[in-house]
Amino acid sequence: MKFVEKSKEKIAVVLDIDESLANAIRRSVSEIPTLAIENVTFVKNDSALYDEVIAHRLGLTPLKMEKNMNEFEECSCKGKGCAKCTVQLKLKAVGPCTVYSKVLKGKADVVYDEIPIVILSENQELELIAEARLGKGVEHVKFTPGIAFYRDVVDIDVKDNCDCLEACPKHLLKEKGKFKDVYDCDSCELCIEECKREGKECVEIKKTGKIVFFIESFGQLDAKEIFVKAVEAMNKNLKEISKVR
Questions:
Q1: What's the rounded Cα separation, in Å, for the pair 133 and 222?
Q2: Is 191 exposed, middle or buried (0-12, 13-18, 19+ CB in 10 A)?
Protein backbone atom coordinates (compact mmCIF):
# COMPACT_ATOMS: atom_id res chain seq x y z
CA MET A 1 0.00 0.00 0.00
CA LYS A 2 1.08 3.55 -0.75
CA PHE A 3 -0.82 6.60 0.47
CA VAL A 4 -0.97 9.29 -2.20
CA GLU A 5 -3.25 11.57 -0.18
CA LYS A 6 -4.18 11.31 3.49
CA SER A 7 -6.44 13.55 5.56
CA LYS A 8 -9.54 13.16 7.74
CA GLU A 9 -11.78 14.05 4.82
CA LYS A 10 -10.09 12.12 2.00
CA ILE A 11 -7.58 9.36 1.36
CA ALA A 12 -6.07 8.05 -1.86
CA VAL A 13 -4.13 4.80 -1.61
CA VAL A 14 -2.42 2.69 -4.27
CA LEU A 15 -3.27 -1.02 -3.96
CA ASP A 16 -1.83 -3.99 -5.78
CA ILE A 17 -5.23 -5.68 -6.24
CA ASP A 18 -7.58 -6.38 -9.15
CA GLU A 19 -10.78 -4.49 -9.94
CA SER A 20 -13.10 -7.19 -8.54
CA LEU A 21 -11.61 -6.86 -5.05
CA ALA A 22 -11.52 -3.05 -5.28
CA ASN A 23 -15.19 -3.05 -6.23
CA ALA A 24 -16.00 -5.39 -3.32
CA ILE A 25 -14.37 -2.93 -0.91
CA ARG A 26 -16.22 -0.04 -2.55
CA ARG A 27 -19.57 -1.76 -2.14
CA SER A 28 -18.76 -2.68 1.48
CA VAL A 29 -18.76 1.03 2.42
CA SER A 30 -22.56 0.69 2.38
CA GLU A 31 -22.26 -2.01 5.07
CA ILE A 32 -20.79 0.35 7.70
CA PRO A 33 -23.26 1.34 10.46
CA THR A 34 -23.64 5.12 10.83
CA LEU A 35 -26.00 7.42 12.70
CA ALA A 36 -28.84 9.27 10.95
CA ILE A 37 -32.27 10.67 11.77
CA GLU A 38 -35.00 8.13 11.09
CA ASN A 39 -38.21 9.52 12.66
CA VAL A 40 -39.35 13.12 13.14
CA THR A 41 -42.31 14.23 15.27
CA PHE A 42 -43.47 17.76 14.45
CA VAL A 43 -44.91 19.82 17.30
CA LYS A 44 -45.35 22.92 15.16
CA ASN A 45 -44.44 23.84 11.59
CA ASP A 46 -45.48 27.24 10.21
CA SER A 47 -42.81 27.24 7.48
CA ALA A 48 -43.41 27.10 3.73
CA LEU A 49 -42.11 23.52 3.57
CA TYR A 50 -44.13 20.38 4.21
CA ASP A 51 -43.23 18.22 7.20
CA GLU A 52 -41.96 15.49 4.84
CA VAL A 53 -39.50 17.85 3.12
CA ILE A 54 -38.00 19.04 6.40
CA ALA A 55 -37.79 15.45 7.68
CA HIS A 56 -35.95 14.46 4.49
CA ARG A 57 -33.42 17.26 4.95
CA LEU A 58 -32.88 16.30 8.57
CA GLY A 59 -32.35 12.67 7.57
CA LEU A 60 -29.55 13.67 5.20
CA THR A 61 -27.80 15.80 7.84
CA PRO A 62 -24.59 13.95 8.88
CA LEU A 63 -24.37 13.20 12.60
CA LYS A 64 -21.28 12.35 14.60
CA MET A 65 -21.12 8.71 15.57
CA GLU A 66 -22.07 7.81 19.12
CA LYS A 67 -19.75 5.24 20.70
CA ASN A 68 -21.09 2.00 22.17
CA MET A 69 -24.43 2.26 20.37
CA ASN A 70 -26.17 -0.95 19.36
CA GLU A 71 -27.40 -1.58 15.86
CA PHE A 72 -31.17 -1.22 15.69
CA GLU A 73 -31.92 -4.82 14.70
CA GLU A 74 -29.41 -6.34 17.12
CA CYS A 75 -30.42 -4.34 20.21
CA SER A 76 -32.04 -6.06 23.22
CA CYS A 77 -35.19 -3.96 22.65
CA LYS A 78 -35.68 -5.90 19.38
CA GLY A 79 -36.15 -2.80 17.24
CA LYS A 80 -38.62 -1.00 19.49
CA GLY A 81 -36.12 1.81 20.18
CA CYS A 82 -34.30 2.45 23.45
CA ALA A 83 -31.42 4.52 24.88
CA LYS A 84 -28.94 1.87 23.71
CA CYS A 85 -29.84 2.09 20.02
CA THR A 86 -31.52 5.48 19.49
CA VAL A 87 -30.64 9.13 20.12
CA GLN A 88 -33.14 11.96 20.53
CA LEU A 89 -32.58 15.48 19.20
CA LYS A 90 -34.79 18.55 19.50
CA LEU A 91 -35.18 21.66 17.36
CA LYS A 92 -37.02 24.85 18.19
CA ALA A 93 -36.82 28.10 16.22
CA VAL A 94 -38.86 31.28 15.71
CA GLY A 95 -38.60 33.50 12.63
CA PRO A 96 -37.46 35.60 10.98
CA CYS A 97 -34.37 33.45 10.53
CA THR A 98 -32.71 30.69 8.57
CA VAL A 99 -32.79 27.49 10.57
CA TYR A 100 -29.41 25.74 10.38
CA SER A 101 -28.40 22.25 11.45
CA LYS A 102 -26.61 23.63 14.52
CA VAL A 103 -30.02 24.30 16.10
CA LEU A 104 -30.45 20.53 16.53
CA LYS A 105 -29.67 19.75 20.17
CA GLY A 106 -29.35 16.35 21.83
CA LYS A 107 -26.94 13.56 22.70
CA ALA A 108 -25.57 13.53 19.14
CA ASP A 109 -23.79 16.44 17.43
CA VAL A 110 -24.14 17.46 13.82
CA VAL A 111 -21.00 17.27 11.67
CA TYR A 112 -21.59 20.58 9.85
CA ASP A 113 -23.28 23.46 11.70
CA GLU A 114 -24.23 25.56 8.68
CA ILE A 115 -26.50 23.17 6.74
CA PRO A 116 -29.71 25.16 5.99
CA ILE A 117 -32.91 23.35 6.96
CA VAL A 118 -35.63 25.94 6.30
CA ILE A 119 -36.25 29.71 6.19
CA LEU A 120 -38.78 31.07 8.67
CA SER A 121 -40.56 34.38 8.09
CA GLU A 122 -41.61 36.69 10.90
CA ASN A 123 -43.62 34.95 13.65
CA GLN A 124 -43.29 31.55 11.94
CA GLU A 125 -42.29 28.72 14.27
CA LEU A 126 -40.70 25.31 13.90
CA GLU A 127 -40.56 22.80 16.72
CA LEU A 128 -39.82 19.10 16.39
CA ILE A 129 -38.34 16.03 18.04
CA ALA A 130 -36.06 13.82 15.92
CA GLU A 131 -34.99 10.27 16.62
CA ALA A 132 -31.68 9.01 15.20
CA ARG A 133 -30.46 5.42 15.00
CA LEU A 134 -27.68 3.37 13.46
CA GLY A 135 -28.23 2.04 9.95
CA LYS A 136 -26.40 0.95 6.82
CA GLY A 137 -26.23 2.43 3.34
CA VAL A 138 -27.70 -0.75 1.85
CA GLU A 139 -30.88 0.23 3.68
CA HIS A 140 -30.87 3.97 2.83
CA VAL A 141 -28.26 6.31 1.37
CA LYS A 142 -28.49 8.63 4.42
CA PHE A 143 -26.57 6.00 6.42
CA THR A 144 -23.64 6.02 3.96
CA PRO A 145 -20.50 7.49 5.60
CA GLY A 146 -18.79 8.58 2.37
CA ILE A 147 -18.03 8.02 -1.30
CA ALA A 148 -15.58 5.36 -2.49
CA PHE A 149 -14.26 5.02 -6.04
CA TYR A 150 -11.16 3.77 -7.80
CA ARG A 151 -9.28 3.88 -11.08
CA ASP A 152 -6.38 2.11 -12.75
CA VAL A 153 -2.86 3.38 -12.13
CA VAL A 154 -1.39 4.01 -15.57
CA ASP A 155 2.05 4.56 -17.01
CA ILE A 156 2.17 7.58 -19.33
CA ASP A 157 4.89 7.59 -21.95
CA VAL A 158 5.38 10.93 -23.70
CA LYS A 159 7.57 10.11 -26.69
CA ASP A 160 7.82 13.51 -28.28
CA ASN A 161 6.87 17.12 -27.60
CA CYS A 162 3.71 18.06 -29.46
CA ASP A 163 0.50 20.06 -29.17
CA CYS A 164 -1.37 16.94 -28.02
CA LEU A 165 -0.17 17.57 -24.46
CA GLU A 166 -2.49 20.57 -24.17
CA ALA A 167 -5.52 18.33 -24.77
CA CYS A 168 -5.29 16.86 -21.25
CA PRO A 169 -8.20 18.38 -19.25
CA LYS A 170 -6.20 18.02 -16.01
CA HIS A 171 -2.99 19.38 -17.56
CA LEU A 172 -0.99 16.35 -16.40
CA LEU A 173 1.27 16.11 -19.45
CA LYS A 174 4.32 18.37 -19.64
CA GLU A 175 6.99 17.31 -22.08
CA LYS A 176 8.86 14.26 -23.29
CA GLY A 177 9.22 11.67 -20.54
CA LYS A 178 7.70 13.93 -17.89
CA PHE A 179 4.23 14.35 -16.42
CA LYS A 180 2.56 15.61 -13.27
CA ASP A 181 0.76 13.37 -10.75
CA VAL A 182 0.00 10.17 -12.67
CA TYR A 183 -2.56 9.13 -10.03
CA ASP A 184 -4.86 11.91 -11.28
CA CYS A 185 -5.03 10.38 -14.76
CA ASP A 186 -8.45 8.78 -15.34
CA SER A 187 -7.47 7.33 -18.76
CA CYS A 188 -9.86 9.56 -20.70
CA GLU A 189 -7.38 9.30 -23.62
CA LEU A 190 -8.23 12.75 -24.99
CA CYS A 191 -4.51 13.30 -25.55
CA ILE A 192 -4.30 10.13 -27.67
CA GLU A 193 -7.36 11.16 -29.70
CA GLU A 194 -5.77 14.56 -30.34
CA CYS A 195 -2.56 12.85 -31.49
CA LYS A 196 -4.50 10.67 -33.93
CA ARG A 197 -6.22 13.73 -35.40
CA GLU A 198 -2.80 15.25 -36.03
CA GLY A 199 -1.44 11.96 -37.41
CA LYS A 200 1.00 11.50 -34.53
CA GLU A 201 1.66 8.88 -31.85
CA CYS A 202 3.56 10.80 -29.20
CA VAL A 203 1.59 9.70 -26.11
CA GLU A 204 1.04 6.14 -24.89
CA ILE A 205 -0.99 5.12 -21.83
CA LYS A 206 -0.53 1.64 -20.31
CA LYS A 207 -2.18 -0.01 -17.29
CA THR A 208 0.24 -1.01 -14.52
CA GLY A 209 -2.04 -3.60 -12.90
CA LYS A 210 -2.45 -1.47 -9.76
CA ILE A 211 -5.48 0.42 -8.44
CA VAL A 212 -5.63 3.86 -6.82
CA PHE A 213 -8.52 3.79 -4.34
CA PHE A 214 -10.22 6.98 -3.14
CA ILE A 215 -12.50 7.56 -0.15
CA GLU A 216 -14.17 10.90 0.60
CA SER A 217 -15.86 11.12 3.99
CA PHE A 218 -19.17 12.86 4.71
CA GLY A 219 -17.85 13.58 8.22
CA GLN A 220 -19.32 10.84 10.42
CA LEU A 221 -16.05 8.88 10.27
CA ASP A 222 -12.51 9.66 9.16
CA ALA A 223 -11.76 8.54 5.60
CA LYS A 224 -9.11 6.06 6.80
CA GLU A 225 -11.56 4.60 9.32
CA ILE A 226 -14.13 4.12 6.54
CA PHE A 227 -11.58 2.13 4.54
CA VAL A 228 -10.73 -0.11 7.51
CA LYS A 229 -14.38 -0.68 8.43
CA ALA A 230 -15.27 -1.44 4.79
CA VAL A 231 -12.65 -4.19 4.72
CA GLU A 232 -13.94 -5.51 8.05
CA ALA A 233 -17.52 -5.56 6.72
CA MET A 234 -16.37 -7.41 3.60
CA ASN A 235 -14.52 -10.01 5.70
CA LYS A 236 -17.59 -10.44 7.91
CA ASN A 237 -19.76 -11.15 4.86
CA LEU A 238 -17.18 -13.61 3.50
CA LYS A 239 -17.20 -15.50 6.82
CA GLU A 240 -20.99 -15.74 6.62
CA ILE A 241 -20.76 -17.13 3.09
CA SER A 242 -18.15 -19.69 4.18
CA LYS A 243 -20.69 -21.11 6.67
CA VAL A 244 -23.12 -21.94 3.87
CA ARG A 245 -22.72 -25.55 2.71
A1: 19
A2: buried
Please write the tens of the pLDDT for every residue from 134-177: 889 999 999 999 999 999 888 877 776 666 777 777 777 665 55
Contacts of 9 (CB under 8 A, 6+ apart): 216, 217, 219, 223
Separation of alpha carbons 229 and 122, rounded Å: 46
Nearest 5°: phi and psi at 120? -105, 130
Domains of the chain: 2-30+147-215 (3.30.1360.10), 35-142 (2.170.120.12)
DSSP H helices in the chain? 19-28, 51-59, 190-197, 223-243
Which H, E and C letters describe 151-205, residue by residue?
Answer: EEEEEEEECCCCHHHHHCCCCCEEECCEECCHHHCCCCCHHHHHHHHCCCCCEEE
